[in-house]
Specification:
Structural class: mainly alpha
Radius of gyration: 35 Å
Strand content: under 5%
Helix content: 55-70%
């Protein structure tokens, strides 16, 4: 089984470099035209020269907007599209507001029930006829 591992690693690198080259926009390819890079990757893929050359010399460098220093100082500055709910202060505030409303309603219901029971207990102690619940 281990004797196939080098072949599988070479094949995986070959496929990765080929697909990466195909998915890279023409304007971002460095060094040679995109078609030439595809041919180099396909012709020299078995000996790893093509894929390694693509990864080293042809692939565009992916530097964050504002440079690497800006990305290190503010890692969340790039995140403008989607924010996880537990990182979104507006969402957390809406949860707190909703929870507070639910708790307030529950507290009012408990207080009303307590008042009703106290009134019922007072009536029983004074000997009055109990009244049916008014729900």
């Amino acid at each position: 089984m281990l004797r196939y591992l080098p072949f599988l690693l070479v094949l995986a690198l070959w496929i990765y470099a080929f697909i990466d080259c195909l998915n890279t926009p023409e304007g971002e390819v460095r060094g040679l035209p995109k078609v030439v890079w595809v041919i180099i990757i396909l012709l020299f893929g078995e000996v790893l020269v093509g894929p390694v050359a693509w990864l080293v010399a042809g692939r565009p460098r992916r530097v964050p907007a504002g440079g690497a220093a800006a990305a290190e100082q503010q890692p969340r500055a790039r995140r403008t599209e989607w924010v996880a709910p537990d990182d979104n202060p507006e969402f957390l505030k809406s949860l707190k507001d909703e929870t507070a409303r639910n708790e307030e309603k529950l507290l009012k219901d408990w207080e009303a029930d307590l008042r009703r029971r106290e009134d019922e207990l007072k009536r029983r102690e004074s000997g009055e006829e109990p009244q049916p619940p008014q729900d």
